[in-house]
Amino acid sequence: MADELLIDKIHDLSDLELATLICLVAQEHCIIDTEPDALDDLVQELELVAANVFGLSHALIDCSEHTSLDDFAHAILSIEGSPVRSNSTVRTRQDSYFLNAPTFQSIAARSPVSENFADNKSIANVIIAKNLDEAPKQVQIQALELMRTKRIYTRTSVQKAPKRFLFIALLGGGEGPRLTKHLNDQMFISHFHDPEDGFPNLEETYDDGDSISSVVKKGPISSPGPLLLPRISATVIEQLSQLSKHATVTMELKQYQQNIISFLRLHRAVAGGISAAATQHFDKLARCLAPLHNLSYATPSLIALAARKIYPHRIHIVKPEKERSMQWGSDVDAIAALLDGIGAEDVIEDALGTVGAETPL
After folding, report:
1. What is the mean pLDDT of the chain?
2. How far apart are CA 44 and CA 278, in angstroms?
3. Is the separation of the CB atoms in 146 and 100 below 8 Å?
4. Does residue 361 belong to any structural domain of this protein?
5. pTM of the model
6. Does 181 share its domain with 325?
7. CA dist list (Å): 297 to 1, 238, 283
């Protein structure tokens, strides 16, 4: 179990800081959603969270339908670092067994980073991909490969991501899956930040108390200097990571998890089912939440909380004409009326309300 001082420090974190901490502890990546008008403020807040709270370098890429692989790579390789040896034993993209795939051929043909640029750059600890859902498919595939392999390939070298590495897909508005299928499933959790909850780190940068929207936006936030100690150190993250790996999940709670998964897969409003990767993330998040609550074991409430963070970005709402009862002659208008207004969060709450477990004595 974590010490009381650490638990108090964790309880003082904002929702964005806590989401970042969970992902760093789990060594996974996330989607953060907000209102479209608040995206710019959220970008600066996340930059400050990375720099001041965790002492990590960060990079921002503002995606659009015109974003190229060059843009993506240059944004990621934006931190000065040591040159990477070109004779690395890691297989280069030219040697990859993916070479015959059309998508990867286009990436190989357009080696996104020039030799001189890549040799003295390294990948940032935290990558904030604003409007990633608007980026072309090949850019999203490149992001997926980076998350899976923690490497990005150049013409002459392989750039490796740092040990503490977090990729944040920052989206504005909407509900349900918006990224390509496999990239979406790779994302560990999704979190919606309500602008009314504020941007505490950004607000502290203004001395006059004016609202954030009424002042001129500053440029990109720089990383903290060597004398600025982060509030959450690498040692703390490693400690929480080890505690999460040893957290206990009883057989009864395993059954509760499986009941939630089964209900979601069979829910009439869900199209496409629930993936196996989501199930693995579900179990992992429940374990990660335990030490944050100063527990060495998972509880039903932590299981429910994990479900609310794991599944919202993964659930597709079925179209009325595809709903399964249509096979037995249901009226499409009646089904449309039934599904009207139902979103992923409604499905999750329906599942938790139906299969909710009583707290063990």
Report:
1. 82
2. 30
3. no
4. no
5. 0.82
6. no
7. 10, 18, 12
